[in-house]
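Per your request, structure below.
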């Protein structure tokens, strides 16, 4: 994971607050520990993205977490190493998280927050059928800059419309 993040920092640091500066083994250990705690507490579920043909090479991460249990709302976040972009890995990973969110966790609504200008992430949302709802102004601080984020959503009944296509594409 550390090598994957370090190789991708020039791209990741444009969009993600945790990617500002360097990324060390200590940062990775903290992330894994927090991920295990969140999983055990049923707050969030983080997954590594790997290829079966090369399971030791870390491609990225995808996560789903609750933003409102009462409202049955979750959010998906993700990143992918730069040299593996535009190969469909993230579309498949996010489709898998939709399956987890809607089918296993019985969420009603799942959102993506995407930094304005992050076209690669927008393409994932579009391919999967998310609905663009609007723009959140100065939503996240990355380094010294506040970034606007678009918010995209999918409702459980919309997922039901798309799920057969996801299976046909072998995304789930």
């Amino acid at each position: 994971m550390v090598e994957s993040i370090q190789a991708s920092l020039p791209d990741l640091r444009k969009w993600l607050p945790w990617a500002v500066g360097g990324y060390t083994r200590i940062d990775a250990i903290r992330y894994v520990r927090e991920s295990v705690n969140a999983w055990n507490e049923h707050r969030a579920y983080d997954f590594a993205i790997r290829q079966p043909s090369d399971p030791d090479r870390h491609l990225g991460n995808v996560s789903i977490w609750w933003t409102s249990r009462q409202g049955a709302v979750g959010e998906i976040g993700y990143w992918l190493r730069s040299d593996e972009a535009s190969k469909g890995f993230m579309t498949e990973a996010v489709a898998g998280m939709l399956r987890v969110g809607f089918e296993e966790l019985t969420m009603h609504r799942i959102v993506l927050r995407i930094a304005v200008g992050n076209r690669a992430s927008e393409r994932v949302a579009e391919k999967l059928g998310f609905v663009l709802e609007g723009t959140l102004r100065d939503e996240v601080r990355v380094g010294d800059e506040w970034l606007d984020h678009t918010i995209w959503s999918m409702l459980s009944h919309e997922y039901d419309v798309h799920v057969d296509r996801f299976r046909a594409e072998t995304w789930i």
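Helices lie at 2-12, 25-40, 89-104, 119-128, 156-168.

Regards,
D.
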